[in-house]
Amino acid sequence: MTVKFEQTAQSPRQVLGHTLFHGVPEDVVQLLLRDAAILHVQAAEVLFREGEDAVEYLYVLSGSVEVLRHTQDAQERVFQIFQPGQLLAETAMFMTHGRYPMEARARSDGVVQCLKRAGLQEAVRLWPELAKRLLTRLSDRVYARVNEVEWYSESTAAQRLADYLLRLSGGTRQSVHLPLTQRQLAVHLGVRAETLSRLLADWVSQGRIAGARRNWVLLDPEFLETLVQAARRRF
To answer: Could you report the per-residue pLDDT of 31-50, keeping only the tens digit for each?
Structure first.
């Protein structure tokens, strides 16, 4: 990990506020927090790289962290952005190959808590309820990914973009700020950058949205919702 250790007033027990660790017995708490460290990170700093030994997982205290992969044509595909109060890479602690499947990078200056794989694995053996909670989280993620694969195979570029904008806005007529560059967003949506630019320009000319670059206003969310409903699953 290329982050810098910093002594702070933040308690290492803050991670226990995460739903995964609610009601954890004190002996299990000691295992989870063993050798934990509070880390100060700078924007664009790499926290771990794809293929490195997965010996630590992270809890975001402030700032944000993105997980990504580099495509064969050197593009970045951002899979998820983690905000304060979220865990990342905890399921990687149980992968048979023992390596991180993605890269994690700080999107801004912030603070994260670094926790150890060995402590989590021992905690699971000592308190099976924790294993059940982890399995539930993993099952939900697998289900979400199955739906995502189906969505990307059956939806159009317009439906994917409409869905993305609606999720950012909560379905309301309001301003949205894209957390990704338009090139990154095109990779994320599985469309060509030219297709994305054309869609945005068409919707601006039709009065559906307004804005430029990473800042947009959804003028006609009903239009976007109609596009999406044709391909969206019920659950």
So the answer is: 999 999 999 999 999 999 99
